[in-house]
Every structure is written in C-alpha cells, then in structure tokens.
C-alpha cells in the first residue's frame, strides 16, 4: 500500500470514502424523514380519534344535562341536541329504566352516562390499537 498522501490512488480512495460517507448520511436523513412522516400520520389519526370521541362525549353530556334539568323538549336547541345525539344513544336507550322526579320532568338518564363511559372506552381502545399498529416493527 502506498503511504504517499499525494499519490493519485490515495486521493481516489479518499474521494470514494467521502462519497460513501455522503451516501450513508443521505440514507440516514431519508430514514428520519420517513419516520417523521409516519409519526405525523399516526399522531393525526390519534388526535382525530380523541377529538371525535371528545365531541361525542360533550354532546351526550349536554343531552344528559338537558334531560336532568327538565329542559323543554319543544325548544329548538333541545330538539337539535336530542336529534343529533339520538343515533349514538340508540344502542343504550332501553338498557335501564331511568329514575324520574317532578312528574317525569327531571330525568336522571343512567343510559346516557353508560353511553359516555362505553364511548370513552371505545375511543381509548381505538387509540391503543393505532399505537399498537404504529409500534409494530
């Protein structure tokens, strides 16, 4: 092996090493970009799940408050909340008989509270599933 640093074969080897080093750095950078994109997509999915479940819980809680306080069912806002939350309450509507007070005006609807808990658990499970998919090798 020639130890002369100015020898032409050594300069070619140094250039080859620089090229290999640059290729390695580019591969690392590309890998980091891909990991960042993947992380961003999964974070968006998780945040979307949290947002949708949170909005649903707020809607169901509003329904609970309106029923508990004896809101006028003929009121437009009350009808809007009831109609919007009705599809989400359908699986739970006849689960339990809700206790009433004041001649069935104030209704403590246990079914709504159960729906809130069930949808919270479903949202949590969905987030855990997405995290499981993300953490797979």
Global geometry: rod-shaped
Helix content: over 70%
Rg value: 30 Å
* N-to-C order of helices and strands: HHEEH
Class inferred from helices and paired strands: mainly alpha
Low-confidence stretches: none
Distance between the termini: 44 Å
The largest beta-sheet arranges its strands as 1-2
Note the total helix count.
3
Percent of sequence in beta strands: under 5%
Let me know the average pLDDT: 87
Give a structural overview:
The chain is mainly alpha-helical. Helices cover 74% and strands 3% of the residues. It has helices at 8-68, 76-89, 110-135, and strands at residues 100-101, 106-107. The chain has a two-stranded antiparallel ribbon. Helix 1 (8-68) crosses helix 2 (76-89) and helix 1 runs antiparallel to helix 3 (110-135).
List the helices and strands and how they pair.
Elements: H1 8-68, H2 76-89, E1 100-101, E2 106-107, H3 110-135
Antiparallel strand pairs: 1-2
Concise synopsis of the structure shown:
With 137 residues, this protein is an all-alpha fold. 74% of the residues lie in helices and 3% in strands.
Structure keywords:
mainly alpha, rod-shaped, 137 residues, 74% helix
């Amino acid at each position: 092996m020639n130890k002369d640093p100015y020898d032409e074969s050594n300069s070619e080897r140094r250039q080859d090493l620089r090229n290999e080093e640059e290729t390695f750095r580019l591969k690392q950078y590309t890998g980091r970009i891909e990991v960042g994109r993947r992380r961003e997509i999964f974070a968006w999915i998780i945040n979307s799940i949290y947002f949708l479940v949170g909005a649903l819980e707020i809607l169901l809680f509003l329904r609970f408050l309106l029923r508990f306080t004896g809101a006028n069912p003929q009121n437009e806002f009350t009808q809007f909340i009831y109609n919007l939350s009705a599809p989400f309450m359908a699986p739970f509507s006849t689960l339990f008989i809700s206790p009433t007070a004041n001649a069935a005006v104030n209704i403590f609807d246990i079914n709504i509270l159960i729906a809130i808990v069930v949808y919270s658990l479903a949202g949590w499970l969905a987030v855990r599933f997405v995290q499981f998919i993300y953490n797979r090798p």
